[in-house]
UniProtKB/TrEMBL annotation:
One of its GO terms (molecular function) is aldehyde dehydrogenase (NAD+) activity. This is Aldehyde dehydrogenase (NAD+). It comes from Streptomyces clavifer. Pfam families: Aldedh. CDD domains: ALDH_F16. SUPFAM superfamilies: ALDH-like.
Length: 478
C-alpha cells in the first residue's frame, strides 16, 4: 500500500544540457589542448558514467594562462568601473538565462540534488555577480580610500563541493576590482567552470581576463608558485591550505585561505523542537554534509536531548536518498569514491572508539557513491568524530547543561568557521554568539548565504573574508 510519503518520480530533463565529449583549457579566450596533450575523465558520482574528457593542465599551461592574464590586466584594470560592471551584469544575466542548464550540469558532475543546484547554488551564483557588478563603479566608497588599485593576476583554486558557487565567490570580486584571473576547478567537478568560460565568451569579456585550467593538484601548486601571480585565493582542505601558506611565505603574494570546519549547532531547551530539527538537517545533510561550514557537531541541552533525538531520527528516516536529478531527492551522491572512503574510514573510527552509530534506514543505489544519513551518540570531545572534519552526512551529538558549558564545548576545536544557536531568547542569542569563535554564527537558522555577508574563518579554518564589502579588500592593494 502506498504511504503518504510515496512520490512519483519527478526527473529533471537531462536534455537541457549538451555536454561535449571533450574540453580543452580556456586560455586567452580560446579552448586549447594541454601542452603535453594530457587529459582526464570526469564522471557522474551518482552513476559512475563518464561525462566527458577534459585537458589536464601542466606547468607550461599555467605559464601560458598567467601570461595571458597579465597581458589582459593592463587594459582591464584601466577600464572605468562602470565598464567592468557592464560585463559583470551581462555575465549575471546569462547565468540566470542558462540556470536550468547549469543546474543540471552541476548535478550531473557533482552528485548533489537538483533541488539544491536549482534553488541554492545557481541563484546564489547569479546574485554574487550582480552584487559585485554593483561595486565595480563604487570602489571609492568601499572604505579603502580613493581610487583603490587592483593587485594584478589572481590565481584561484576551488573545491568540488560548490563548484560554480565557489567560482563566483572568487571571480566576481576579482573582476569588479580590476584584476584578471587564472582559476583551477577541482578535478572531480571541472565542467561548470568550462561552461562558465563559454559564458565569458558569450558576454564578450575581453580575452585573457578569465582563464580556466582544469587539472590536478600539481596544476594548483604550479599556479601558486608562479612568480607573476600577485594574489592566491584558495578554498579547500586545511592540509593543502597549510602547504600553500608555506609555499608563498617570503613572497609578496597576498592570500586568502578558506579551509575546513567543525561547526557547532547549539540547541537550548527552550528552542522549538521541530524547527530545530529542520535546522539540524539543513546544517549537516545539505549537500550530503560536504560543506565546510556544516553544523557537524550537535550540542543539545541535556534536558531535551531524548526528545530532540527522537524527533531527529524520525525526520532522518523520511529523507529521500537517490537519483540527484529527481526533484524529490533530498540526499544525493557523495562526490567521489575517494571522499566516500574518507567518510567510511572516519565513521569506522567512531564505532571503534565507542561512539554509538545510527544510520537512517534507506536503500543505497548499486552504482555510484552513497552514504546514508548517519548520527553518532555517546560522543565525547576526545572522539575523532567530534574533532575531525568528516565532510559527509554524519552528525556527532554531544550534550551540555549550562550556556557556559555549551560555549566551551563549541569553541573546543581547531576550527572556527561557523556555529548555530537555537533558542527562543534573543538575549541568549546575543550573549552566546559574542563568545563563539566562529566566522559566521546563525541564530534559529543554518547555512543561510548572501553575497552581502562576509564569510571566513578563525584558527585552522583559514584567514581573509569573502563576500560583502570585506570581500573587496582581498583583491585591492590596501
Ligand atoms: P583539496 O585537496 O584541498 O582540494 C581543493 C583544491 O585544491 C582542488 O582544486 C585541488 O585539486 C587543489 N589542490 C590539491 N592539492 C593542491 C596543492 N598541493 N596545491 C594547490 N592546489 C591543490 O580538498 P579535497 O581533496 O577535494 O578534499 C579533502 C578535504 O578537504 C575534505 O575531506 C574536506 O575536509 C576538505 N574540503 C573543504 C572544503 C571547503 O569548502 N573548505 C571544500 C572541499 C574539501 P584536485 O581536485 O585536483 O585535488
Ligand atoms: Mg565529476
Amino acid at each position: 500500500m502506498a504511504s503518504a510519503f510515496d512520490y512519483a518520480p519527478a526527473p529533471e530533463s537531462r536534455s537541457v544540457v549538451d555536454i561535449a565529449p571533450s574540453y580543452g583549457l580556456f586560455i586567452d579566450g580560446e579552448f586549447t589542448e594541454a601542452a603535453d596533450g594530457k587529459v582526464f575523465k570526469t564522471v557522474s558520482p551518482s552513476s559512475e558514467e563518464v561525462l566527458s574528457e577534459v585537458a589536464r593542465a601542466g606547468a607550461e599551461d599555467v605559464d601560458r594562462a598567467v601570461k595571458a592574464a597579465r597581458r589582459a590586466f593592463e587594459k582591464w584594470s584601466a577600464l572605468p568601473g562602470s565598464e567592468r560592471a557592464k560585463y559583470l551584469f551581462r555575465i549575471a544575466r546569462i547565468i540566470q538565462e542558462r540556470s536550468r542548464e547549469l543546474a543540471v550540469l552541476e548535478t550531473l558532475d557533482n552528485g548533489k540534488p537538483i533541488r539544491e543546484t536549482r534553488d541554492a547554488d545557481l541563484p546564489l551564483v547569479a546574485a554574487h555577480f550582480f552584487y559585485y557588478a554593483g561595486w565595480a563603479d563604487k570602489l571609492d566608497h568601499a572604505g579603502y580610500g580613493a581610487n583603490p588599485r587592483p593587485l594584478g593576476v589572481a590565481g584561484q583554486i576551488i573545491p568540488w563541493n560548490f563548484p560554480l558557487l565557489m567560482l563566483a565567490w572568487k571571480i566576481a570580486p576579482a573582476l569588479a576590482t580590476g584584476n584578471t584571473v587564472v582559476l583551477k576547478p577541482a578535478e572531480t567537478t571541472p565542467l561548470s567552470a568550462l561552461f562558465f568560460a563559454d559564458i565569458c565568451r558569450q558576454a564578450g569579456l575581453p580575452r585573457g581576463v578569465v582563464n580556466i585550467l582544469t587539472g590536478y593538484g600539481d596544476a594548483g601548486s604550479a599556479l601558486v608558485e608562479h612568480p607573476d601571480v600577485n594574489k592566491v585565493a584558495f578554498t579547500g582542505s586545511t592540509a593543502v591550505g597549510k602547504a600553500i601558506a608555506r609555499q608563498i611565505a617570503g613572497t609578496d603574494k597576498k592570500a586568502t585561505l578558506e579551509l575546513g570546519g567543525k561547526g557547532a549547532n547549539i540547541v537550548f531547551d527552550d528552542a522549538p523542537v521541530d524547527q530545530a530539527v529542520e535546522g539540524i538537517v539543513t546544517g549537516i545533510f545539505f549537500n550530503q554534509g560536504q560543506v565546510c561550514c556544516a553544523g557537524s557537531r550537535l550540542l543539545v541541552q541535556e534536558s531535551v536531548q531524548d526528545e530532540l533525538l527522537h524527533s531527529l531520527k524520525r525526520r532522518l528516516s523520511t529523507l529521500r536518498l537517490g537519483d540527484p536529478l529527481d526533484k524529490n531527492t533530498d540526499i544525493g551522491a557523495i562526490n567521489s569514491e575517494e571522499q566516500l572512503s574518507r567518510i567510511t574510514a572516519l565513521v569506522e573510527s567512531g564505532e571503534a572508539e565507542g561512539a554509538e552509530r545510527w544510520s537512517a534506514p534507506c536503500e543505497l543505489p548499486s552504482a555510484g557513491y552513497w552514504f546514508a544519513p548517519t548520527l553518532f551518540t555517546n560522543v565525547t570531545q576526545a572522539h575523532t568524530v567530534a574533532r575531525d572534519e568528516i565532510f559527509g552526512p554524519v552528525l556527532s551529538v554531544l550534550s551540555f547543561r549550562t550556556p557556559d558549558e555549551a560555549v566551551a564545548k563549541a569553541n573546543n576545536t581547531q576550527y572556527g568557521l561557523s556555529a548555530g544557536i537555537w533558542t527562543e531568547k534573543g538575549s541568549r542569542i546575543l550573549a552566546v554568539a559574542g563568545k563563539l569563535r566562529a566566522g559566521v554564527v546563525w541564530a534559529n537558522t543554518f547555512n543561510k548565504f548572501d553575497p552581502t555577508s562576509p564569510f571566513g574563518g578563525y584558527k585552522e579554518s583559514g584567514f581573509g573574508r569573502e563576500g560583502g564589502r570585506h570581500g573587496l579588500e582581498a583583491y585591492l592593494d590596501v
